[in-house]
Amino acid sequence: MKQITCGFIGLGLIGGSIAKALKEKRNNITVHACDKNQDTLLLAKKEGIADSISPLPDETLAECDILFLCAPVSHNDENLRQIAAFLPKDCILTDVGSVKTGIHRQVSALGLEHLFIGGHPMAGSERCGYANSKAQLLENAYYILTPTSSVSDEKLQLYRELVSSMGALPLVLPFDTHDYVTAAVSHLPHVIASSLVNYVKDSDSKEGIMKMIAAGGFKDITRIASSSPDMWQQICLSNRENISALLGGYIDTLQTIRQQIDESAKAEIYGFFDSARRYRDSFIEASSGPIKKVFSIQIDIADEPGALAAIATILALNGISIKNIGIAHNRELEEGVLGIEFYEEKSMQNATSILSGKGYAIHEKK
To answer: How confident is the model at residue 244, as a pLDDT?
Structure first.
């Protein structure tokens, strides 16, 4: 199998996760990492993820078969200009940004269209940085590819195979279609979640009663409001036309349901919630895409010392890794008082079987 050298400009959450997935899934990958954060580079080298490192793009990039632009979108202009002198004539140039129109225009202006395949792994976390990256982040996630019309079929096929080997699901789309679709299913939800959190903050009492009793439902739909404000500022500015248009349509739907509530329109109100329920339930089983299936369970346990530790010990002794664990202090919409989230479905199934066998009441969370 031919050795493939991958260069990374930026090694944060996404760049680090891609590099880790490639190193874990394939034995023919060499990684050269560029990042301004020296601690990140040293950690990647220590972990065996980066074979060579440098704080800035240099002539080492001339050896790359695939070059990933993984720095913040606002740095793409500068980074593209810096690497132009080092780009091999037949490499694949790609990025990981969640907005594609801007990068496609920049690549076109620099005459690099024959090398460029835009990339967007539809995966992420509220946490950022290389320290939080992991190979599993990409598993069963859609990885959207937006090739230019000048890229060869051979390059596109090579990149599709590389994405598949990471455990992700490659999906080819025109870049403008990508930006509209992601504005609807990713960007708009972040705006809505953040606006809801801000509204509750501004509406809360001096005693913070709303914050105190905020329960499962509120926390579930506003979880993504904990994401990086720097990143979401850039996304809103980069994809403002699509986000604004969709936000206008969403505001219209809110005005409609508000009118139906004001008029006590029973049938219409029921239809509003029933339509949403049926559509949402239709993709609960899809473990890929921006609305990812959460592999978690709720467990009924006694509120007494050692109860949580006992379950954690049982899972550890059976080699089951836990992604997150916590007590639900407010049980609205929660069937169990202890929530455990796993990295994969198999771990969730094994945990359910083992804990059920020991007499615990288990509730799968959808």
So the answer is: 97
Question: Are 322 and 315 a contacting pair, CB within 8 Å?
Answer: yes
In this structure, are strands 52-54 and 66-69 parallel, antiparallel, or unpaired?
Answer: unpaired
- Phi, psi (deg, nearest 5) at residue 98: -90, 0
The number of beta carbons lying within 10 Å of the beta carbon of residue 9 is: 24
Task: Tell me how far CA of residue 317 lies from CA of 42, 133, 246, 295, 360, in angstroms.
Answer: 33, 26, 49, 20, 17
Q: What is the pLDDT of residue 145?
A: 97
How far, in Å, CA of 30 to CA of 27, rounded?
Answer: 9
Cβ neighbours of 293 (radius 10 Å): 17
SS3 142: strand
Residue 286: what pLDDT?
Answer: 46
Beta carbons within 10 angstroms of residue 67's beta carbon: 27
Locate tokens 């590819």: which residue?
145
CB distance 175 to 146 below 8 Å: yes
Q: What is the pTM of this model?
A: 0.76
pLDDT (tens digit per residue) in 308-330: 888 889 999 999 988 888 766 54
Instruction: Identify the H or E element spanning 14.
Output: helix 13-25
**Two structure tokens written together for 187:** 């960007």
Bridge partners for 147 per DSSP: 117
Question: Per-residue pLDDT tens for 294-310?
Answer: 688 888 777 677 888 88
Query: Is 1 strand, coil or helix?
Result: coil
Tokens coding 19: 């590099």
Residues of the chain whose pLDDT is less than 50? 286-291, 330-335
pLDDT of residue 303: 64
SS3 328: coil
- Within 10 angstroms of residue 212's Cβ, the number of other Cβ atoms is 11
Relative to beta strand 169-172, strand 142-147 is parallel
Q: Give all strands (DSSP E) within 180-328, no chain letters.
A: 296-300, 324-327
Q: What residues form DSSP beta bridges with 4? A: 29
